[in-house]
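BUG: 3D viewer hangs when loading the predicted structure for this chain

Environment: internal workstation, default settings.
Expected: structure renders.
Actual: progress bar stalls at 90%.

Input used:
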Amino acid sequence: MSNLIESYSQISSSLISLFSSVFFYLLFHYLHKKKIYDIILTPEISQEMMSLVNAIVLSIIGVLCVLNTNDYHKFNIYAFFNNYFIIGYCISHCYIEYKHDLLKLEMILHHFLTITGCSVVSLQYELLFYSNILNGLGHIPNIFLCNYKILQQLPDYKKKYHDFYRHNKILFAITFFIFKVG
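Structure tokens produced before the viewer hung:
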């Protein structure tokens, strides 16, 4: 019975990683070079939008993990999905950076460490709670950072939506200290 559960777990983790890799790859290519109003989405803006979607999904899963820490089965489902969703995101992100000459050494190292960390944490149940706080709730500041960085690359919209830009900058600073430093 233990081998059956382990096999199911390995298949599920592979499917979740594959799904998120394909999802983010298709999302990037859907956005890339697309014209929305008068904005042509560059690879950098498309990447930030992809990161924004990732941050929103992981933040929601992180909140669900924290809210369900007393329910063993729900917590495990959210934690399991969270770790393998991140792995798929990292794989697709590296591939997209490679294809568009945006790959930097620090990002390769970041994605490698993230994939390694999520894989190790998935094997150690005691670490799942902490990994979901870092991977889930830790992505809440990234929502504001992505909004900020998207507008930073669009100077006309930065001026037009100056309050939104300024509020995201402030909210990023506040949530960064709450969820990543504190």
